Amino acid sequence: MALPYFTETRQGKVAFATVIALTLLNSGVSVAFSYVGRDFYSALSSKDPEQFNEMLLKFSAALTLGVPVSVFYRFQREKLSLEWREWMTARVLDLYFSNGVYYGVERGGVVDNPDQRIAEDVKSFTAFSLTLFITAVTSVIDLASFSAILYSIKPSLFLDIFAYALFGTVSTSYIGRRLGGLNFSQLKKEADFRYALVRVRENAEGIAFYEGEGTEGDEVGSRLGRVVENTGDVIRAQRDLEFFTTAYRYLIQVLPVSAVAPLYFAGAIPLGVVTQSTSAFNHILSDLSVVVNQFESLSQFSAGIGRLKEFLDEVQRQDGERDEGGILQLASATAPASKRASRPSMDRIDLDTDPSRLSSSTSPSSILNFSNVTVSTPDLQRTLVTSLDLSVPPLSHLLIVGNSGAGKSSLLRCIAGLWTSGHGTICRPPNGDCFFLPQKPYCPLGTLREQVLYPSFTNATDAEVLDILTQVDLSSLASRVGSGDAIAGLSATLDWSNTLSLGEQQRLSFARLLANRPRLAVLDEATSALDVTSERNMYEAVGKVPGITYVSVGHRPSLVEYHGVKLRLMGEGGWKVERRSEVEENGGEWEMNP
Ligand SMILES: Nc1ncnc2c1ncn2[C@@H]1O[C@H](COP(=O)(O)OP(=O)(O)OP(=O)(O)O)[C@@H](O)[C@H]1O
User: Fold this and answer.
1) The sheet that has 520-524: what strands, in order across it?
2) Which H or E run includes 568?
3) H or E stretch at 24
4) Is 400 helix (H, G, I), strand (E, B) or coil?
5) Residues 6 or more apart whose Cβ sits within 8 Å of residue 117
6) Helix, strand, or coil here: 447?
7) Test site for ligand 1: of 105, 408, 559, 568, most ligand atoms within 8 A of the Cβ
8) Cα(403) to centroid of ligand 1, in Å?
């Protein structure tokens, strides 16, 4: 997970090399201060003012050089960690948004709280990986430099220190072994708690109408309870560990002094050497005791890595187009547009992985073609449509009807390529030429202009956007949100989902359809909140888009007159197709009910 940033980007390589150089310089500064400090105390103990003043000067010189090195070392580290986080988050988002992965991850339900993994786990991964790496590098450098100092003072002390650090590491790992699992649960429980609060925010009106505050409060409260319970376990495990680590750290203050004190009492070494040996001992011991000193952060780090790895594995599993390779490797489908193959005029969606059962025939006279399509629910518990064969010619609009739960929206999910459970072949124009209006209107974050142009944000003049709003009976919206100035209103940013009425949101969806001008529009109960006149206006506006064919799902009888083909789903797999021309030729009425 860590390597790609440094192998794929020049910026990463340069920043990393700078950090390593500053790390070496900073270690040099520590060693220099150790010698200056030694001579300073020696001058003090020998009551030599001349040498003392000279050491003060040397100390000032060391300070002048050392302070910038130390400051830039820390700054560069933070900067690298920030740039790395930015790169890695962008890469994870690329993977998450490519080939419908975010939809598959959400539906799959294998990993919880993907938002937390992208926002928090990536952040702690980049920050702590760097800290850990630098700690390892500085520990090795420190170890080499201060070992030489300590060995020159007292060789046996040098061996004792290794035994002490080994004892500390083994004991800490044993006493703190529960912390890894507890920290893993902590991340999940915190994210679950936050998600419950986000849901209340997003559904505030629904909850207020139901007066569901009590139930919501109980749910949020019980999630908080789980956070508190787990945190309690974490702090108890930390307490047990700290009995050991605190004693371990206090002992360091006296151990080296006690070891060299006999030499000092015998007059073999001056006081400065005692302080230097203490400092060298502390350096070496903290180098050897990385696990003891950082155990809590290490266990949090390993929990974060575990969750991130689990998430990236799931992303890779959901991404049918990803090549084998590194966990952060982009698939060819998400490569820059210039490298992608040119787009075919028709897309073939195969619902089956068994090629022998797939038909490859496409008819030029149809804009949407179903060949032997069987649709099952993703859990394979129900078959919603069995062996559907249907060809929809261009401009011959299709209405899909049927009882609630019969599988109408599911068939649209198959057309969109969101569901692949079943078998058969669906041929339809490629993604850029298809436009889907989902059953629940969606308003992205952004300005009114972005609501209209979503998702492509094509270049459109203010006049064109206002014209589209007029076509969907929303001419007054722009001036309303712009305090009388329609042009200013196009740049207004509101919480659209909670501000606009459901009918207004549905009309805004139609505006989006008109702005994107697809060849095939798929409308899932897109006028359910509109009155019959508005519904007519919407269909008339869509009908004026040159070359457009639409497929609608709906229950309302008034819909039938805008369509030429009717597909009725009977439930449990059955279906029936009727064509307006045939019904009328036989003297029948073209109406909703058979
Ligand atoms: N992810 C899923 N896993 C299992 N079953 C599902 C899933 N999504 C939908 N279903 C089931 O599939 C059936 C068809 O759902 P679908 O949304 O297609 O119905 P519909 O005909 O559009 O209904 P409505 O008119 O009420 O919108 C329903 O019984 C639904 O519960």
Assistant:
1) 434-437, 520-524, 549-553, 398-402, 565-571, 574-579
2) strand 565-571
3) helix 10-45
4) strand
5) 111, 307, 308, 311
6) strand
7) 408
8) 11
From 245-254, 328-337, 530-539, the region with the lowest mean pLDDT? 328-337
563/483 Cα distance (integer angstroms):
40
Q: Is 528 in the pocket of ligand 1 (CB under 6 A)?
A: no
Q: Considering only CA atoms, which residue is closest to atom 10 of ligand 1?
A: 377
Domains of the chain: 3-318 (1.20.1560.10), 344-432+523-531+553-589 (no CATH)
For the residues 232-250, what does the mean pLDDT come to? Answer: 90
pLDDT value at position 356?
39
Nearest-CA neighbor of 244 among 282, 182, 295, 180? 295
Instruction: Please tell me if the CB atom of residue 187 comes closer than 6 angstroms to any atom of ligand 1.
Output: no
Q: Which of 377, 421, 553 is the pocket-test mutation for ligand 1 (most atoms within 8 Å of CB)?
A: 377
The pLDDT, as a whole number, for residue 342 is 42
Beta pairing class for 422-428 and 347-350: antiparallel
Q: Is the dihedral of CA 154, 156, 162, 168 positive or negative?
A: negative
575, β-bridge pairs: 569
| CA separation for the pair 331, 317 (Å, rounded) | 12
Torsion of CA 499, 502, 503, 509, to 10 degrees: 90
Is this prediction's pTM over 0.80? no
The answer to whether 521 and 476 are in contact (CB under 8 A) is no
From 375, 380, 382, mutation site for ligand 1 pocket: most ligand atoms within 8 A of C-beta: 382
Q: Write down the pLDDT at residue 131.
A: 86
Q: Using one digit for the tens of pLDDT, what is the confidence trace for 501-538?
A: 999 999 999 999 999 999 999 999 999 999 999 999 99
Angle at 247 between CA 243 and CA 248, to 5 degrees: 115
Average pLDDT over residues 160-179: 85
Phi-psi region of 569 (alpha: psi -120 to 50; beta: other; left: phi over 0): beta
Question: Residues, the chain, total?
Answer: 594
Tell whether ligand 1 has an atom less than 6 A from the beta carbon of residue 422. no
Cβ atoms 284, 142 nearer than 8 A: yes
Q: 119-123, 263-267, 401-405, 433-437 — which is least confidently predicted?
A: 263-267
Neighbours of 530 (CB within 10 A): 20
Per cent of the chain over pLDDT 70 is 93
**Bigger pLDDT: 320 or 505?**
505
334 has pLDDT over 60: no
Q: Does residue 407 line the site of ligand 1, with CB under 6 A?
A: yes
